[in-house]
Amino acid sequence: MTISLYQASVPVIQKSLTALKGVLAKGAAHAEAKKIDESVFLAARLSPNMFPLTRQVQIAADFGKGPVARLAGVEVPKYDDTEATFAELAARIDKTLAFVGTFIPAQIDDQEDRDILLTIAGNPVTFKGQPYLLHFAMPNLYFHMSMAYAILRHNGVDVGKRDFIGGF
User: Fold this and answer.
1) What is the pLDDT of residue 167?
2) Which of 160, 165, 156, 167 is nearest to 29 (CA)?
3) Rounded to whole angstroms, what are the CA distances from 11 to 102, 103, 124, 147, 167?
4) Which one, of 73, 139, 65, 57, lies nearest residue 96 by Cα?
5) Rounded mean pLDDT of 148-159?
6) Does 16 score more than 90 pLDDT?
7) What CATH homologous superfamily does 5-156 map to?
8) Who's near 149: CB < 8 A, 6+ residues apart?
9) Residue pair 147/56 in contact by the 8 Å Cβ criterion
10) How many CB atoms lie within 10 A of CB 12?
11) pTM of the shown model
12) Phi, psi at residue 3, to the nearest 5°?
């Protein structure tokens, strides 16, 4: 049995971002329960040279919308990166999920050999569709989701592996 690019992207991205939204909800609830200003969590980072929670979530959302758009050959929506609350980050995820949900298999399947041109660190990089999705986009989505999860976990939010993975 084979798996299509659509199956490897849209449902996986939807499940992942939904789980991330749940992790953020637990972060917001923890901040409220402990009477900690949520900006403390949103600015938290694991290391001084890593992005804070807010940026990790923004990038995760970008790796939700970007792959499906690029594989389908449509413009990737641009977001302003101005989120400053848990609610605004959740809204960004909702906006991303709504966009991802507009795609159908016929737009993404059979795009394994589509050229995907990106600029990374100021340099042009060309991927083929399948390696772009499987070896660049999805690992980046998981990385930034993991960092968001780890930042909240490190700061005392009661989240576990099941929160990260999402429902079965």
Assistant:
1) 75
2) 156
3) 12, 11, 29, 21, 13
4) 65
5) 97
6) yes
7) dinb family like domain (1.20.120.450)
8) 20, 23, 159, 163, 164
9) yes
10) 16
11) 0.96
12) -115, 135
Q: What is the mean pLDDT of residues 67-84?
A: 97
pLDDT value of position 32: 97
Cβ-in-10-Å burial (0-12, 13-18, 19+) of 27 comes to buried
Instruction: Kindly tell me the sign of the dihedral angle through the C-alpha atoms of 94, 95, 96, 102.
Output: positive
**How far is residue 131's CA from residue 126's CA, in Å, rounded to a whole number?**
10
Q: How far apart, in whole angstroms, are the C-alpha atoms of residue 19 and residue 17? A: 5
State yes or no: pLDDT of 40 exceeds 90.
Answer: yes
Cβ–Cβ < 8 Å for 102, 70: no
- CB atoms near residue 115 (< 10 Å): 11
The three-state (H, E, C) secondary structure of the chain, written as one string? CCCCHHHHHHHHHHHHHHHHHHHHHHHHHHHHHCCCCHHHHHCCCCCCCCCCHHHHHHHHHHHHHHHHHHHHCCCCCCCCCCCCCHHHHHHHHHHHHHHHCCCCHHHHCCCCCCEEEEEECCEEEEEEHHHHHHHHHHHHHHHHHHHHHHHHHHCCCCCCHHHHHCCC
Q: Sign of the C-alpha dihedral, residues 108, 133, 124, 101? A: positive
**CA dist., res. 132 & res. 109, Å (int):** 14
